[in-house]
Here is the input.
Amino acid sequence: MKAILFITVFFLAFGILAQEIDENTKLKNTLTTIFKLSAEKKYAEAGKLFVYEGEDQTRNLKSVLDFAKKEDKKTIQRICKKIDAFVKLSDNYEIENITDEVKAGRTTKIIKVNFISGDQVLGTNFHFVSLNEKYLLIDLK
Here is the structure.
């Protein structure tokens, strides 16, 4: 009986771990895509990977930024240019960790990325939220 319980707990734990690894892979892939699109100045396409954060509670962390809207377009371009500058000024970058945080009542994921240039390391947190089974960037700090 203990063996059955142990096996059940093992497979349950393994399943949860596998799901978390899969989620982290999706998250890292989204970040890499954003880096690529920012470098290529494909802002409209990159904007589809950003979520609205602001005072409009009907949209806050619930809708994708719309490149056709003036304010959303400015936000997309600002974030993409900032990301591109981090990548261009660095020799390399590495993901230090991924953590969870609750923001506006939703669980968000934070990827800490270290941009490395010589002996200097600049740590930057990329905040994401899951929406419609995709991870979307909220902001970076």
